[in-house]
Amino acid sequence: MRISTSQIYDAGTLGIQRNQQGLFTLQNQLSTGRRVLTPADDPVAAAQALIVTQSKEIGEQHIDNQANARAQLNVVESNLGSLVDVLQSVRERVVQARNTTLTDAQRGFIATELEIRLGEMLGIANTADGSGQFLFSGYQGMTRPFAIDGSSLPIPPATEPPVAYFGDAGERLLQVGASRLMPTNVSGAELFMDIRSGNGTFVTGVGGNGALINQGSGVIDAGSVTNPALWSAAVNAHGSFRIEFSNGGSGLEYQIYNAANVAMLAAPASFVSGQAILLQKTTAPAADFGAQVVVSGTPAAGDTFTVDPSTSQSLFSTMQNLITALRTPVGTATYTTAEFTNRMVAEHLNIDRALDNVSRVRADVGSRLKELESLTNTSEDVDLQYATSLSDLQDLDYAEAISQFTQQQVQLEAAQKSFAQISGLSLFSIL
């Protein structure tokens, strides 16, 4: 078989190029630390690496979202802590103000301090985060959530202007896990506005004496529910209740009326100061309403007290009611010491309810932060597993690669030398 000179050159060149290509590939692998540089190097590993890379990138985005959620919730938690401090300060001043030995001027000083605290609360309620979005405005991040309600102006003298909420109840959600959306804010409606008045189930108050305020020294407490199911049934059937005092044959007595002004007791009951008044129906058919109140002091004949289902009262309204109560001179025919004490007892309870509400919201934020910590630890572990899988699929075994590189160098040198020797052979050299 004849072998032409061009065939010898072509075969030699092809062998050298093949060895050079292999050497260059090994050089790239050694310089990058990767075994799979293109899908052609290992199609199966390349396909698996693509899936793992996508999953890893999604996990990294979740970790970034967790960090963002943590930062936002930390700002919220810090402001909630400040609000708790303000409320505790207000509570101390309310306890002090309930001392009936204080003068009107001294109560006025406390009212001035409460006005300052109200300003602090408004400042906290209108706090913005680093991006300029208000923390407590729901979805309306660029809307100032709390301000004086201009539609209610002008207001009567000695009355605090109402504060209105201009946000909504929305929750800003961040995807912090494959199946977990976490709220990163707290609605101002939940925190400041939707606070149940009274004891959370019903609210007690003074009902007046005819066209006048209560004339005696009776003070009603917040009351308590002994059986929620019975109380719920009583409210559904009778609505609210009124306790009215009168002089009986054996002394001061009381009768309980429902919202329709129907007497609940078969006969008026004797009143004992500080003794629980059971809310019940002794007329046929008899019924226990599952609640009770305590009236202390000595009500006058005709004095009444009310028991109404709780409604929502904003923290700002509570503060404004306290300031108004403290600025009104005590000891007049229209504002007796007993009237003042009953108002302060009611608003003191509302402050306690607000403090409980803020503490509940703060605990919820704390649980979210704890969950984020757990999610981040898990996500980082999963990210490490993805990185290990990618390393197994793509990374280079340096010991094996260096051995192959050395072998490839030897093969290339051999190919080059053999080609040089073969290409030098010629018949003319022996003729």
Descriptive account of the structure:
The chain is an alpha+beta fold. The protein folds into two domains: 239 residues, f41 fragment of flagellin, N-terminal domain; 112 residues, no CATH class. Helices cover 51% and strands 15% of the residues. It is built from eight helices and 13 strands. A hairpin with a 2-residue loop joins β3 and β4. It starts with a helix and ends in an 8-residue tail after the last helix. The model has no long low-confidence stretch (mean pLDDT 85).
Largest beta sheet: what is the strand line-up?
A: 5-13-8-9-10
Q: What is the averaged pLDDT score?
A: 85
Taking the sheet with the most strands, its summary is: 5 strands, antiparallel
Distance between the termini: 21 Å
Identify the CATH class of the largest domain: Mainly Alpha
Strand content: 15-25%
CATH fold annotation of the largest domain: f41 fragment of flagellin, N-terminal domain
Overall number of domains: 2
> How large, in whole angstroms, is the Cα Rg?
41 Å
The total strand number stands at: 13
CATH architecture of the largest domain: Up-down Bundle
The helix content, as a percent range, equals: 40-55%
Task: Show unreliable segments.
Answer: none
Q: What is the CATH superfamily label of the largest domain?
A: f41 fragment of flagellin, N-terminal domain
Short description:
The chain is built from 8 helices and 13 strands. The protein has 431 residues and is of the alpha+beta class. The mean pLDDT is 85.
